[in-house]
């Protein structure tokens, strides 16, 4: 019986080492995925602006300096058009959702209407960048995002939320 307990005691170290390896792998993997996602989100966000679109396209095609001078105005114009279309689409989507909520309202129970009002208020708060405490500030992968001014700031450049 004592040999059984001594055998079990000698197995806890390798099991703990294996568990630690899995935990460390999960943490490192999570951090890597977070960095990749942050980079993709920033790339997509920058494509919504004329400058971001222009720079992204210039980086992708790697033009010569002569081509760069010719392509930059073309890309800038297209980027401005895309930025404007994005704003218009968002406005149209907001209007459509508002219409949907008004159309649904008569068909809902009082409890469902209350939930719809709560959901709509949360949506409007996010849209306007407000919470009950003031401007919404969120941390995304080490960067502070303020919905009030729509800017990402590095951790050292932001104040505490």
User: What is the domain total for the residues?
Assistant: 2
Which structural class do you get from the secondary structure elements? mainly alpha
Q: Strand share of the residues?
A: 5-15%
Helical proportion, percent range: over 70%
* Sequence of secondary-structure elements: HHHHEEEEE
Q: Mean pLDDT across all residues, rounded?
A: 78
Biggest sheet: strand arrangement: 3-4-5
Number of alpha- plus pi-helical segments: 4
Weakly predicted, low-confidence segments: 136-161
- Name the shape in a single word: flat
Task: Return Rg in Å.
Answer: 26 Å
Q: Give the termini separation.
A: 60 Å
Main sheet specs? 3 strands, antiparallel
Count every beta strand, where a strand is a DSSP E run of 2 or more residues. Answer: 5
Key features?
disordered C terminus; 4 helices; two-stranded antiparallel sheet; 5 strands; 3-stranded antiparallel sheet; 9% strand; 161 residues; 2 domains; flat; mainly alpha; 73% helix
């Amino acid at each position: 019986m004592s040999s059984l307990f001594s055998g079990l005691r000698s197995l806890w170290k390798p099991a703990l080492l294996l568990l630690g390896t899995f935990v460390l792998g999960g943490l490192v993997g999570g951090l890597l995925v977070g960095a990749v996602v942050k980079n993709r989100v920033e790339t997509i966000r920058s494509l919504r602006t004329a400058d971001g679109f222009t720079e992204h396209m210039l980086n992708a095609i790697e033009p010569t300096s002569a081509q760069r001078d010719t392509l930059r105005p073309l890309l800038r114009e297209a980027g401005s058009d895309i930025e404007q279309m994005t704003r218009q689409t968002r406005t149209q989507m907001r209007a459509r959702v508002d219409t949907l909520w008004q159309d649904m309202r008569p068909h809902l129970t009082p409890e469902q209407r209350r939930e719809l009002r709560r959901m709509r208020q949360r949506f409007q708060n996010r849209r306007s960048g407000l919470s009950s405490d003031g401007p919404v500030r969120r941390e995304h992968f080490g960067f502070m995002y303020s919905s009030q001014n729509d800017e990402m700031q590095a951790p050292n450049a932001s104040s505490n939320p």
